[in-house]
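so my prof wants the structure for this chain in the tokens format not the other one, which i didnt know existed until like an hour ago. anyway here's the sequence
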Amino acid sequence: MKNNPDFTGIWKRIVAAIRGFCTKNLVIKVVALLFAILLWGYVLTDLKPYRTKTVTNVATSFEGEAELLAQGLCVRGDRAEILRNVTVQVRTQVTNYAALTANQINATISLRNISEPRVYELPINPTVTSGYGVVQSVSPSVATVEIDTLVRKTVPVTPVITGEVSEGYWADMDNCSITQYIDVEGPKTDIEQVRRAECVIDLSGRTSSIFSTFEVLLYDEEDNVMSSDILVGTTPSATVRIPIYPVKTVEIDAKGSLEGADTLATNHELFDVSVTPETVRLVGEQSVLDTIDSVKLDTINVSGLSELTIVKSEIIIPAGTRLLDEAGKLEDDNTVSVTVDIRESTSERVFEQMAIEVEGLGDGLSATLDVYAVDLHVEGRVSLVSILKRSDIRVLVDVTNLSAGEYDLDLFALIRDEESTVELQTSLFSGDAPVTTVHVTLRPSS
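here's what i got, hopefully its the right format
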């Protein structure tokens, strides 16, 4: 039987060889590594080997578009679709490989030498910034470009007002100005479809006047919104000016507008003055409104009047302000209704120790009162109070249908007749104390 080979010694020799390679002649190995690095640097810097790099998302642009427009022609269609990004392959030196990006490549579509409107298949021409390499290929290599006649058209602008100004402010739409017409320029095929432009003006939250430009939307004859991409040059805009002012609500000073209130008819006085409406809304500059707390009316002469009178009077509108109605429109009619309540003057008389009469005492009964006389105070129109006599007045307590017993009953005064009694104000006193009831004792007669 043969002996199995001994691999242990072989592995030991291999490991020892590797250890010797790594530890022996270390200086020579380091020098060799440095030499290799220097050699590779020489290759890169002096020999400059080339590689091909694929650069994606390279932007494209038109060249010679100004000359095209000068001929009365223009590009029609979605420019973003026409000028799509392309992929370019560039042969560049290794040292420029990492630095080469889409920024160093310019891809153009030349519009020169075009003289009539039609569809063209135009080559895409990429170029690389000097020193970065040479273009090998581009994909896609051509672009489909439609050329149309350049035309200009004047279209009307329709203003659309949305939203409301902040509470306490008012937009003067009667004195606003908005561009009425704009000129649009672009491909004939598209521009001929434009029928009008719309300018949307949002007033929401506004507290100051508007004086600026607003973008417009284009509409075709079927009122479909058209893309602004059809236009050549900048999108037209509308200039809008809308004055916005603060609003203040103030009272109408009707009483201060009266004349002759001290020369009313004899024995008459001014009882009350009211106005409808009681307040008005003024609009104007804030500095002007701050000085106004109320408005007056044209003079109302009440001299010699003796009864309630309703008159019309005009509001004196303070300088620098205007009047608004409840709907927020400028008020054309600044007249208001004024009620002047003039009544006869009142006076008061006191009739002392008026005997209390028992009314409705039943047969076989007698009445005893805890108070037999009171002082009567009468207040009312001078013409009525002044003619009263003691004999015109009775102070009564009513015991109708009451049987024997003790009762606290109301006192009431009857003056001349029921009409006069209702009109006049009366009050009863016992000494200085007001009296409204009297204690009555009813007994059988002896």
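also thought this was worth mentioning. The chain is about 15% helix and 50% strand.
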